[in-house]
Please model this.
Amino acid sequence: QVRLQESGPGLVKPSQTLSLTCTVSGDSITSNYYYWSWIRQPPGKGLEWIGYISYNGNTYYSPSLKSRTSISRETSKNQFTLELSSVTPEDTALYYCAKEGDQGFAPWGQGTQVTVSS
Model:
């Protein structure tokens, strides 16, 4: 059974960098041909896809967040990490990591709340 678990600070100050890690169990993040995504949901709004890192290490980001986003991985730990720089209160959201394949996004992590506030 594949499981994903997000971790990271729940409070980030404006202008700082948000950093979250997703730890995967039950599958390898290098398994062909899956993509490992970050998705967020601001309060009262819909889901927003942030970006992914692929099984072979390629990355692709949402155009609206590309300039501030970096996704990397640590294969020895079976983890991938999101960094979002220069955060503002508009980046406050529930952040999820998820596995993406032919069947869409599944499974998802339980999500972690990040609040941007001074």
Summary: The radius of gyration is 13 Å. The chain has a mean pLDDT of 97. The CA atoms of residues 4 and 109 lie 5 Å apart. DSSP finds no helices and eleven strands in the chain.
